[in-house]
Write a structure and sequence with these properties.
24 helices; two-stranded antiparallel ribbon; elongated
Length: 548
């Protein structure tokens, strides 16, 4: 807690201040837009951007992560509270804060119980499929706001403003950085300026609304934005706890995954080490703070954190500066925000989420591992067809299912000796020397209840294709653990080999595995020998030797 503050240097201050200013300018339209996605009053997005980053700065381990509203978490929030309360209602705000409380408490408990390893149970392809599916859902849901109505019944002034804002944002995203660079602007400044394009477009839209008759033509706006800081309270609905607990846990899981992804990418650039359990505590505390200040579930945002980093952030002080500036924005007159047109906000949301449609992971997975590519597609389609909550469940199930499926089918290689050396390699890949009465199998996985049957079947298959084998050597180079089920399977294999007058030998058993085996009777009853190396086994069990 506050380790960064103890070692703070004055030279870091300019970067933190500039980054805090830049992110604050991003957060006003972005926070309001993501609150709109969540089905909440736009000001709630600013509420969720003040206290949570302050609390995260106290407990989190990332130096440059920006914590606040995020598109996918906002969509999940809408999916949970939408059936329970009308969008924009007081009850919806209460339920959103209650959902943040559930997620925050769950994250805090996981952090205190040191369960940071949970981040490993969602593979990159599955996470990418979930992100892409969610981005498509968010963009599609914003079309009726962008166009002022559902197709084909659109509101022409709203559609013109929304589509015009969308085109400006797309052009700025594609070309503004390069244009500024050609004009002599430094690359970092040009990139940050391009990221601030939404704020410029929003300000332009507000000016346009004030100078023309668009409000009278029916273009919808955010409406009055209450001035002043959010009041600290813990309003909850006792009738909705049961409906919020399970989705709150799922949202907490996604919050952790999203945040860790963002924080890890920046930590690599800064040569820093993240502590996953500290991240759980920091994110949990941030979500509890969001609940107390009338917000909704928050997480670390990769795009916003990248802007924070590029703008010069050195420590969490940048987030404190952002929070202070947003608080000042609410303390100042907020009448100008009332003219912010919803079609322009919808355009900023669409452009933001379309940036999440990165298909590089799918292309790589398709070339490298079709199973991962299919998992990507199944997760994406699950989100589109069944909703984000079902998409999370499908993603976790596929990640775990893929892991179990692969672990249950370990690679086993028949080994031979490379001529003139003591190296042993897979005979399917190398011209290696073998002996007809000696079968050497290398098991490239830990042995546990999920794969022992497949290992036993493969051993029997290889023995059937090597009928003259009188010695079976299991090379255990890659085996780091053997569970009780696998121990019984090895004992049964030993008994079968003994009845068939075939010696069962073990080679290159790791020390920890050997220590465990010595606590059993397998080594005493072994129908063969224990060899220190594969070469020693090969030399000792040459066909000229007697059967063990």
């Amino acid at each position: 807690m506050l380790q960064w503050l103890k070692h703070y240097r004055r030279a870091q201050l300019p970067g933190d201040i500039s980054a805090g200013l830049v992110v604050a300018m991003m957060m006003i339209p972005q926070g309001m837009a993501y609150a709109l996605v969540a089905g909440l009053p736009p000001v709630v997005g600013i509420y969720a951007s003040i206290l949570p980053p302050i609390v995260y700065a106290l407990f989190g381990s990332s130096m440059t992560q920006s914590v606040g509203p995020m598109a996918i978490v906002s969509l999940m929030t809408a999916a949970v509270i939408g059936p329970l309360a009308p969008a924009g209602s007081a009850l919806a705000s209460v339920l959103a804060a209650q959902l943040a409380l559930v997620s925050g408490v769950a994250l805090l408990l996981c952090g205190l119980l040191r369960m940071g390893f949970l981040a490993n149970f969602f593979s990159r392809p599955v996470m990418s499929g979930f992100t892409v599916g969610s981005a498509i859902v968010i963009a599609f849901d914003q079309l009726h706001i962008l166009l002022g109505g559902d197709l084909p019944h659109i509101h022409l002034p709203s559609a013109e403003l929304g589509v015009g804002s969308l085109l400006l944002l797309v052009l700025a995203r594609q070309y503004l950085t390069g244009l500024l660079k050609r004009c002599g602007v430094p690359a970092t400044v040009a990139d940050i300026a391009a990221k601030l394009a939404p704020m410029v477009v929003v300000l332009g839209a507000i000016v346009l609304m004030a100078a023309t008759g668009l409000p009278e033509m029916g273009v919808r706006t955010t409406g009055a934005v209450p001035a002043g800081l959010p009041h600290l309270n813990l309003a909850t609905s006792s009738a909705h706890w049961k409906a919020l607990v399970q989705p709150g846990l799922l949202i907490g899981f996604i919050v952790f995954l999203m945040s860790m992804s963002a924080a890890q990418s920046l930590a690599l650039k800064r040569n820093e080490k993240l502590v996953s359990n500290h991240e759980l505590i920091g994110l949990g505390a941030a979500n509890v703070a969001s609940a107390l200040s009338g917000g909704f579930p928050v997480t670390g945002s990769l795009s916003r954190s990248a802007v924070n980093f590029a703008a010069g952030a050195n420590t969490p002080l940048a987030s404190l500066v952002t929070a202070a500036l947003l608080a000042c924005a609410l303390l100042a007159p907020t009448g100008w925000l009332a003219l912010l047109p919803l079609p322009t906000l919808a355009a900023t949301i669409i452009v933001a989420v379309l940036g999440m449609l990165e298909l590089d992971i799918l292309r790589t997975a398709w070339r490298y591992d079709r199973g991962d590519a299919l998992a990507w597609g199944a997760t994406c389609l699950g989100v589109l067809a069944l909703g984000v909550e079902a998409g999370v469940v499908i993603g976790v199930a596929l990640s775990m299912g893929t892991l179990i499926w692969r672990a249950s089918r370990p690679h086993i290689a028949v080994l031979g000796r490379i001529a003139g050396s003591e190296h042993f390699r897979n005979i399917e890949r190398y011209p290696a020397e073998t002996q007809p009465e000696l079968l050497m199998l290398r098991i490239d996985a830990n042995l546990f209840f999920g794969n022992v049957e497949a290992v036993s079947e493969r051993i029997e298959s290889e023995l059937a294709t090597h009928p003259s084998a009188r010695h079976l050597v299991l090379v255990m180079t890659a085996v780091s653990s053997i569970d009780t089920t696998a121990l019984f399977a090895l004992s049964e294999l030993n008994d079968r080999m003994k009845r068939r007058n075939i010696g069962l030998h073990l080679a290159e058993v790791k020390g920890p595995v050997l220590d465990r085996l010595r606590q059993s009777t397998l080594l005493q009853q072994l129908n063969g020998q224990l060899f220190l190396s594969t070469a020693m086994a090969f030399d000792h069990l040459h066909p000229a030797k007697d059967v063990a």
